[in-house]
Design goal:
mainly alpha; about 60% helix; about 0% strand; single chain; 2 helices
């Protein structure tokens, strides 16, 4: 492998790590907001409060959930655009996708070739 390709692979790994971390954070945020949105009416019912109490809280929490859904869509779009960019720089067989990956073509294809540095990226569909 030439030095330029090594630099591209290293850059790809760096960006992929950040992308996966961002996707995970967005999903955790979305989950937590969903739990908040479920807890608010549950607490109101348990406390036997009027439906008129806290309507603004319901609306704010629901709006935050909608914004989180939009943020998630934008991160997914960024993921797709990063895949297109990886193709443009000659990393067509590099997986930028989810952690659920296609099995390797052979046992040998899944083995790292070097022991120094990060493991190589595997072939993906």
């Amino acid at each position: 492998m030439n030095m330029m390709l090594n630099k591209r692979l290293a850059a790809g790994r760096f960006v992929a790590d950040k992308l996966f971390a961002a996707e995970r954070s967005v999903d955790i945020t979305y989950r937590d907001l969903a739990e908040l949105n479920a807890a608010i009416p549950t607490a109101r019912l348990d406390a036997n409060l009027s439906a008129m109490i806290g309507q603004d809280v319901f609306e704010s929490s629901a709006e935050a959930m909608m914004l989180a859904a939009r943020m998630r869509r934008l991160v997914v779009e960024a993921h797709a655009r990063l895949k297109a960019a990886s193709n443009e720089i000659g990393l067509r067989e590099v997986s930028w996708g989810d952690e659920y990956k296609q099995p390797p073509l052979s046992a040998e294809a899944d083995q790292p070739k070097r022991l120094d540095g990060p493991p190589p990226l595997r072939r993906a569909a």
